[in-house]
Amino acid sequence: MLAIGLVGSIARGDVWRGSDLDIEVIVRGDRPFKVCLKEKEVGVDFAYFSETQGDRLPYDVVPVYDPHQIIEEILKKRDLDMLRLKMINNSMEQASRNLMKAKASLDSNQTYSCLSYTHQAAEEMATAFTLSMREAPSHRRAISQLELAMRKIGKPTLFEEYLTLYNMRQNLEKAAFFYKELKTGYREIWDHLKEKGIGHVCISRESTFQLFFRNRIEPIYRHDKRNFIWFAFHEFPFILLDFFKLEDYLDGQIFPEADLNKMPVCHWVNRYRAILGTMPLAQAPTIYQRAQNIMGELRKIKSAN
């Protein structure tokens, strides 16, 4: 072990009930990047970087053990403004790609796919907006952070328009339904997650579903149900793409005319359908157009800054 850094809400001093420990470890040699999730009294994420992968360290890393000044040297060479701009551009490019997929799905009368890709675009737009206002994006508190960023530029109407992409006003009354679907869905796939991991992420053997949900999901629901509803809309496609690799063998269609009578993917897909079913499906063209309008506003804000 060469160095240890800390990132995330604790590193920023933005501690909340759901804060986990995000520990970045630089090790000798040239080994693949890997993240290990461990559930104890709090969730702990150990991210392992080889000494040749220093440029992959998160932008907000804070060194806590750095005897060889490896992290300090990486930070000295960084231009945070340029790095932030690169992250904004990457998010905007991904948002644009997802909006193109949403339009193609809409033209093919694939309403669920249209809404799913629109939401995936909206996720990237929230990240870009938040970074543009020099706030820290968060996957578990995305709405709270976006609201803070929007407040900085005096755009409450734009923020309310963003919330309509998730039918937020009506879906707040269904928060318990979102909670049940996500909790039951995760319980159904937990053993598979522990066995296979999620992309480059593995879950420690001693971690249980109960601890995982208590540490990482439950606090979102208790903190701000808007964040939880947003999180549920994004957690389902994240698992579909990163764990089940559904898009890989279904030709880019999340909801194709295909046989999904397989365990456990069919349950997860059906629960995601139920989540998307809380949207006004007939208004998919309007929701897509709103996302396009928000993307236009984001481009203006980026140009102004």
Keywords for this entry:
13 helices, alpha/beta, Beta Polymerase, domain 2, 305 residues, six-stranded mixed beta sheet, single chain
Cα shape: globular
- Identify low-pLDDT runs: 248-252
The percent range for strand residues is 5-15%
Output mean pLDDT: 90
Largest sheet: 6 strands, mixed
Name the strands of the widest sheet in spatial order.
Answer: 5-1-2-4-3-6
* Helix and strand element order: EHEEEEHHHHHHHEHHHHH
Based on secondary structure, the structural category is: alpha/beta
Domain module tally: 2
- Rounded radius of gyration (Å): 20 Å
N/C terminus separation: 40 Å
Structure characterization notes:
This protein has helices at 9-12, 70-77, 80-107, 111-132, 142-152, 156-164, 168-171, 175-196, 209-223, 225-242, 246-249, 265-276, 284-304, and strands at 3-7, 21-27, 34-39, 43-50, 62-65, 201-203. It has 305 residues and is an alpha/beta fold. It folds into two domains: 3-78, Beta Polymerase, domain 2, CATH 3.30.460.10; 81-196 and 219-298, no CATH class. It has a six-stranded mixed β-sheet. Strand 3 and strand 4 form a beta hairpin. Helix 4 packs across helix 5 and helix 6 (156-164) packs antiparallel against helix 13 (284-304).
Question: How would you briefly describe this protein structure?
Answer:
It is built from 13 helices and 6 strands. It is of the alpha/beta class and 305 residues long. It folds into 2 domains: 3-78, Beta Polymerase, domain 2; 81-196 and 219-298, no CATH class.
Topology summary:
Blueprint: E1 3-7, H1 9-12, E2 21-27, E3 34-39, E4 43-50, E5 62-65, H2 70-77, H3 80-107, H4 111-132, H5 142-152, H6 156-164, H7 168-171, H8 175-196, E6 201-203, H9 209-223, H10 225-242, H11 246-249, H12 265-276, H13 284-304
Parallel strand pairs: 2-4, 3-6
Antiparallel strand pairs: 1-2, 1-5, 3-4
